[in-house]
């Protein structure tokens, strides 16, 4: 089992910045990758950014150049630096960790942190 605890959400004006943190504990040795998802009211949850154990990153097109995902392995923490925030970035952001056992994937989720961007 993996436990994820997020922090860093809040209210910010358009053009501002926030940094989200996600601390992992438990069976962290089994994690294959981590990432951030978000869900706005009335919309499906979408992938924002991922980072593999090797450091490879992937981003949603609409956040490329504005958001940066990173990890501190010594602290078992993943970060999402969000710059040039837009009102459409408003959502609940969820940290995700996944693991594969053979071909079966298991996902773990944090409790979510609200990000609100005012215009």
């Amino acid at each position: 089992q993996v436990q994820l605890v997020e922090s860093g959400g809040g209210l910010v004006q358009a053009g501002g910045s926030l940094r989200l943190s996600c601390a992992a504990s438990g069976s962290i040795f089994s994690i294959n990758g981590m990432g951030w998802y978000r869900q706005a009211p009335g919309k499906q949850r979408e992938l924002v950014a991922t980072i593999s154990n090797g450091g490879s990153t992937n981003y949603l097109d609409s956040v490329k150049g504005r958001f940066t995902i990173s990890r501190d392995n010594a602290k078992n923490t993943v970060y999402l630096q969000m710059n040039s925030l837009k009102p459409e970035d408003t959502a609940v952001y969820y940290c995700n960790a996944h693991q594969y056992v053979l071909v079966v994937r298991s996902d773990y989720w944090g409790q979510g942190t609200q990000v609100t961007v005012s215009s």
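The chain has a mean pLDDT of 95. DSSP finds no helices and eleven strands in the chain.
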